[in-house]
């Protein structure tokens, strides 16, 4: 299948580790010119050197705890360089814990980092997408939008808001050749998962191996996802081949979610 992604520009957020980094690699391998975003400049530079060198990839240092600064950095980048056909909204997940114990600050922080940042990025990149008659916004969320996950109270809450923001945006932007879709990772072998396993182990008194084994048993595939498996789904949604897929939640979870 020819994904026809040559000559496209992508802004891939949270792209120095895990799912975001694998996505940057997958898009670059399809001929996309990628601009990475994360907080740590050393990691951004290191990731840049790992991308295939046919195109001039780049990076922006930004922190998703500050949407105004993020917006101004990306706007400035676009005015000096180029706009983006593809936006992959992705950042670090909120801390775990039961929802009843969550501080108001935790909701505020997660809402800012996830919903507000996705929103300012969409507002910043959509004018170029409209002009190009081609836009793909892919939000990396969680299967918790279909089935809330135990011990991830703030995350469950904020992911629901992002999913509904995204669906609404899909309704508004479809007429311009722009699609907005959500990818819902199941347990995926990244730093984030290592943290989740540590927390489960500490809470249950089981070893980390036992905690990981129990998580794998809950998946029909009996294993964790590789970040590359998420990246492949995101890359397909970013391609011309996915032009009539709009406003969906796509679980990439080995069948773990117990609803359709
Ligand atoms: N892995 C899983 O099992 C799983 C399952 C369901 C959902 N998810 C969700 O999928 C998303 C990606 O997960 P992942 O496992 O790939 O995460 P990860 O390995 O922890 O990578 C997170 C990336 O986001 C960047 N980042 C973190 N905080 C940031 C901030 N405040 N501003 C800008 N960039 C920031 C990190 O770089 P810097 O630290 O340099 O900024 C890094 O590049 C998260 O929302 C996660 O909750 C993951």
CATH superfamily of the largest domain: NAD(P)-binding Rossmann-like Domain
| Percent strand | 5-15%
> In percent, how helical is the residue content?
40-55%
Q: Taking all residues together, what is the mean pLDDT?
A: 97
Second CATH tier, the architecture of the largest domain? 3-Layer(aba) Sandwich
- How would you characterize the largest beta sheet? 7 strands, parallel
In spatial order, strands of the major sheet run: 3-2-1-4-5-6-7
What is the count of distinct domains? 2
Radius of gyration: 18 Å
Report the principal-axis shape.
globular
Number of strands: 7
Family: Belongs to the short-chain dehydrogenases/reductases (SDR) family.
Protein name: 3-oxoacyl-[acyl-carrier protein] reductase
Pfam family, one: adh_short_C2
InterPro entries: NAD(P)-bd_dom_sf, SDR, SDR_fam
Any overview of this molecule?
By secondary structure, this protein is of the alpha/beta class. The protein has 2 domains: 9-187 and 226-252, Rossmann fold, CATH 3.40.50.720; 190-224, no CATH class. Helices cover 47% and strands 14% of the residues. The protein has a 7-stranded parallel sheet with strand order 3-2-1-4-5-6-7, with helices on both faces. Helix 3 (67-80) runs parallel beside helix 4, helix 4 (104-132) runs parallel beside helix 5 (153-173) and helix 6 (191-204) packs across helix 7 (208-217). NADP nicotinamide-adenine-dinucleotide phosphate binds at residues 14-20, 38-40, 43, 63-65, 90-93, 113, 140, 142, 185, 187-188, 190-193.
